[in-house]
């Protein structure tokens, strides 16, 4: 069925089939998540490649000059939204599906790039879609989908690009260590500055997001603040892991370094925090695995205990898979 749908939309004017394209994109991401939950990873790269090609074709066919405008054009074609309160618009089902699927795809592409040691396939779209351009807010908000704020994933994409560049330079014998250090320092400074700000002012900047959720879900202020705090903690976990990732790309495997130890300790303390429900570990599998692989022997039982608390195991298959990787 999916193959037949793809054949129907093939052609130079994909925007004529924008509703169908969005449904196909959502179907691919749903299939990807289903197979991952079953620990079936054989088709992951094929699904990712197909979804990336589809999103690129859709955005590049909108007739706009930049991805941000292209995304807005697609959203408009999928509309209209409805308004239920002053200055609060509720998107249509297809608008929501497009935003949600695009967020998952950008996220998956970045995480996959860390494993493949390649620049993310959607790297050229990051600034327009994920960055807070002119303080207008990002077009794609990863925090509302995967719990981690955009700035961490943007920097992870930069680290993956640095890793790919380093590999290319080493293969040709043309690596400029000073240039690599300059790029790495800029990434590290950005991550550490934002992380420090989050640790000090964890919930600032989320008031509007909380108000929107309150209207849609009926949450009271206490529930809303709890959600914002949990999102802050999840983002901190990812930021610590991104710093570990950067250190490995630049300096190699150095588990005894003070920087690595600090970030592993930070992740472990945050994951063990009573503020964070264990179920949210499903949104932090990558950073949890990164930290666990660099854990000291005395810390290993703590990582095991966190995973063994998760029940039923079938719901947390990816977390148990992460533990399996740590144990190797």
Number of structural units classed as domains: 2
The tally of strands reads: 2
Strand fraction equals under 5%
By secondary-structure content and strand pairing, the structural class works out as mainly alpha
Helix amount = 55-70%
**Major β-sheet strand ordering:** 1-2
Cα distance, first to last residue?
40 Å
Give the helix tally.
15
Mean pLDDT: 89
- Cα shape: globular
Query: Radius of gyration over alpha carbons?
Result: 20 Å
Describe the structure.
It is found in: Nucleus. InterPro entries: Fun_TF. Pfam families: Fungal_trans_2. With 328 residues, the protein is mainly α. It folds into two domains: 1-79 and 92-146, no CATH class; 190-201 and 223-327. Helix content is 67%, strand content 2%. It has 15 helices and two strands. A two-stranded antiparallel sheet has the order 1-2. A hairpin with a 2-residue loop joins strand 1 (82-85) and strand 2. Helix 11 packs antiparallel against helix 12. The radius of gyration is 20 Å and the shape is globular.
